[in-house]
């Protein structure tokens, strides 16, 4: 691994816990998040980020994405899905504090596994 870069060794798909507006909002069941943290610890790893899609919308974060982000120094990857197909992927790192948080653009490289 190159200094300053993080590598993803495992992704875990979590169902959307939001019942009120699941087409436009998402959240992860706390139990699923706790299970992911425990799994990472058992592998001597850590949770380094989260991902979600924006159907028929850009891969830029929304004000709601920022408001609901709470894991500082983690990556927040957003995939734009147009007509059912992934079209663009962007990543942002959450910085600051709860009182003054922001997303910073993050360069990513997607490498398909063999």
Notes on the structure:
The protein has helices at about 30-40, 65, and strands at about 50-55, 75-80, 85-95, 100-105. The chain is α+β, with helices and mostly antiparallel strands and about 110 residues long. It has two domains: about 10-45, no CATH class; about 50-105, Cytidine Deaminase, domain 2 (3-Layer(aba) Sandwich). The longest helix has 13 residues, at about 30-40.
Tell me the strand percentage band.
25-35%
CATH topology of the largest domain: Cytidine Deaminase, domain 2
Order of helices and strands: HEHEEE
**Structural domain tally:** 2
How many β-strands, per DSSP?
4
Q: If you average the pLDDT, what whole number results?
A: 90
CATH superfamily of the largest domain: Cytidine Deaminase, domain 2
| Strand line-up across the major sheet | 1-2-3-4
List unreliable stretches of 5+ residues: none
Number of helices: 2
Q: For the record, give the distance between the C-alpha atoms at the N and C termini, rounded to a whole number.
A: 18 Å
Describe this structure in a few short sentences:
With 114 residues, the protein is α+β, with helices and mostly antiparallel strands. It is built from two helices and four strands.
Features:
114 residues, alpha+beta, Cytidine Deaminase, domain 2, 2 domains, four-stranded mixed β-sheet, 2 helices
Topology, element by element:
Blueprint: H1 30-42, E1 49-55, H2 63-67, E2 75-82, E3 85-97, E4 100-106
Parallel strand pairs: 1-2
Antiparallel strand pairs: 2-3, 3-4
């Amino acid at each position: 691994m190159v200094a300053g870069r993080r590598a993803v060794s495992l992704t875990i798909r979590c169902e959307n816990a939001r019942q009120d507006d699941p087409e436009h909002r998402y959240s992860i069941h706390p139990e699923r998040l706790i299970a992911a943290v425990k799994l990472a610890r058992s592998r001597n790893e850590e949770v380094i980020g989260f991902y979600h899609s924006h159907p028929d919308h850009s891969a830029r974060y929304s004000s709601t994405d920022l408001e609901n982000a709470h894991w500082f120094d983690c990556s927040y990857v957003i995939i734009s899905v147009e007509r059912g197909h992934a079209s663009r992927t962007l990543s942002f790192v959450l910085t600051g504090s709860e009182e003054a948080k922001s997303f910073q653009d993050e360069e990513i490289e997607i490498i398909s596994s063999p």
